[in-house]
Amino acid sequence: HLQIGNSSILQVGQPIGVFFGLRTDGIYQTGETILPGSSSFGTTAAGDIRYVDFDNNGQVNNNDRTIIGNPQPDFFYGFSHNFSYKNFDLAVFFQGTHGNDVWNVNSHELYRNDGATNNSREVLNRWTPANPSNEWPSAKTRPFVLSDKHIEDASFLRLRNVTFGYNLPASTLGLKWLRSLRMYAQAQNLLTITNYTGFDPEVNSLGQSPIGLGMDRGTFPMARMYTFGVNIGL
Predict the structure, then answer these.
(1) If you compute the radius of gyration of the chain from its CA atoms, what whole number of angstroms results?
(2) How far is CA 76 from CA 96, 100, 154, 156, 157, in A?
(3) What is the pTM (predicted TM-score) of this model?
(4) What is the rounded distance in angstroms from the CA atom of residue 42 to the CA atom of residue 11?
(5) What are the pLDDT digits (tens) for 200-229?
(6) Which residues contact 121 (CB under 8 A, 6 or more apart)?
(7) Which residues make Cβ contacts (< 8 Å) with residue 164, sequence separation at least 6?
């Protein structure tokens, strides 16, 4: 089952709500020495995930958890600009973050390889004796714990708003009561540039909880919206 308790911690000298879990070091291959572990973190055979034994006691357990990600951005940024040419105008607004991580809980489900959920087609390249992959573990039932395997860089740049307008010369219409007429089209969240593999790097399943930031557990992504309108000056 998916264990999501105590995924974030408050620690002196660290940003609020950093992710706390295990670090991975590939997949155990046939013939390698396999570290024993607790019932929650143990690996038992070739094809299982190799977790780092941080305290060097020869066993993988809760004591080997460490900081594996930071949901707090290094900085936020944004920029906007207005363009105009003859009767046309264009306004754009970009906004983004840099340096923040997201725990992609969806990938936990899509790559768990135990037959309990739908899987990504990438797990067709999972570990088998004939295909000793270091990317995805073998197909078997195993407890899934929080590790850096599913922590992703969620830095992004988003075209938050773009508006394109045309000012129709009112004099050409022959209407004395009409001072101005502008038609425009507007789009929000039109483009997002990111390396995050989930639906949206900006979502957060636990709302504004200060120690539960950066968790994407099937949250609906930002909607892309289009607006068309007319500005009439009398």
Answers:
(1) 25
(2) 6, 10, 12, 10, 10
(3) 0.84
(4) 26
(5) 999 887 777 777 788 898 888 889 999 999
(6) none
(7) 88, 89, 90, 184, 185, 186
Query: Minimal CA–CA distance to 160: which of 187, 185, 189, 186?
Result: 189
Rounded-to-integer distance, Cα 81 and Cα 65, Å: 46
Residues 6+ apart with CB under 8 A from 53: 35, 59, 60, 64
SS3 55: coil
Residue pair 154/193 in contact by the 8 Å Cβ criterion: no
Question: Which amino acid, residue 218?
Answer: G
Nearest Cα to Cα of residue 229 among 183, 189, 192? 183
Type of residue found at 1: H
Per-residue CA distances from 167 to 62, 84, 92, 173, 226 (Å): 65, 11, 18, 12, 19
CA distance 103 to 216: 6
Query: What's the rounded Cα separation, in Å, for the pair 216 and 206?
Result: 9
Q: Which residues contact 123 (CB under 8 A, 6 or more apart)?
A: 110, 111, 113, 136, 139
Taking the C-alpha atoms of residue 62 and residue 44, their distance in angstroms, rounded to an integer, is 17
- Residue 209 sits at the vertex; the CA angle it makes with 159 and 192, to the nearest 5 degrees, is 15
CB-based contacts of 47, cutoff 8 Å, min separation 6: 27, 28, 127, 128, 129, 137, 138, 140
- Worst-scoring range by mean pLDDT, 23-37, 142-156, 170-184, 216-230? 170-184
Q: Which residue has the tokens 């500005």?
A: 231
